[in-house]
Design a protein that fits this description.
Shape: globular
Low-confidence stretches: 210-225
Order of helices and strands: HHHEEHHHHEHH
Strand order of the largest sheet: 1-2-3
Number of strands: 3
Radius of gyration: 19 Å
Strand content: under 5%
Distance between the termini: 42 Å
Number of helices: 9
Largest sheet: 3 strands, mixed
Oligomer: single chain
Helix content: 55-70%
């Protein structure tokens, strides 16, 4: 079983048992929505590719569904500021991944410690967190950067006259997309939890006064549609 599908199965079990509720809330995803996306990716990975031209196609589970998920999370971002941050994080991470792909050959013969594509996913996940900081922005950046580079690479090869079929979101890209998103989200969650514990669990404690004032502006409502601050904390 591909690594990506195994990871998705584990995540689906955690979601079903209610062990991922807090993280999903911060992504503005319900348990049901998360399971729908996971199921769609799992099933879509086995469905025939959707042809875009004679030699260019896109995988449903590894291409179309992740793109829909990224777009959904982007639209669900609570404020224009959060959307701008997510967009900038995505572009920055995509550039980092592009440069890494120019340096690291993806051929299996270069896999000294791990599959080169997994290394790219690791770098994308870390870059996504550093650029996005909040859970949503980091996840969008990590997943979106892999997909954008895959789309760009496939289209580039297509216009160069590649004769074999080029599939967006296929094979290793499916795994890399999932791993990158999980690393970015996991780092944001871990660092956010550490900072909250260091601050004693009190909203605003240990932060600059101007930031605290920004978190308590009139009109903010706590709940599942809350927004995170630049450090990945909930604004409460």
């Amino acid at each position: 079983m591909p690594v990506g599908m195994f990871v998705l199965l584990v995540i689906s079990i955690l979601v079903f048992l209610g062990l991922a509720e807090r993280v999903l809330d911060r992504l503005r995803l319900s348990d049901r929505a998360a399971l729908v996306f996971i199921g769609a990716m799992l099933v879509g990975g086995f469905l025939p590719h959707i042809p875009l031209s004679r030699t260019l196609a896109i995988n449903i589970g590894g291409g179309i569904i992740p793109l829909i998920l990224v777009a959904y999370l982007f639209v669900k971002a609570g404020t224009a500021r959060e959307r701008i941050r997510a967009a900038i994080a995505l572009l920055v991470t995509a550039v980092v991944v592009y440069l890494v792909l120019k340096i690291i050959p993806l051929e299996p013969t270069y896999a000294f410690l791990m599959d080169p594509l997994y290394l790219v996913a690791l770098i994308a996940g870390v870059a996504g967190y550093l650029a996005g900081r909040s859970r949503r922005s980091a996840f969008i950046a990590g997943v979106g950067a892999i997909l954008l580079n895959d789309i760009f690479t496939r289209i580039e090869l297509f216009y160069r006259g590649a004769s074999s079929e080029l599939v967006i979101g296929g094979a290793g890209i499916f795994d890399a997309t999932i791993i990158s998103g999980l690393i970015a989200l996991g780092l944001a969650e871990l660092v956010g939890e550490i900072r909250e514990r260091l601050a004693g669990g009190e909203p605003g404690r240990g932060y600059p006064e101007e930031l605290v004032e920004g978190l308590t502006e009139p009109g903010f409502e706590a709940g599942p549609d809350h927004e995170e601050d630049e450090h990945g904390h909930d604004k409460e």
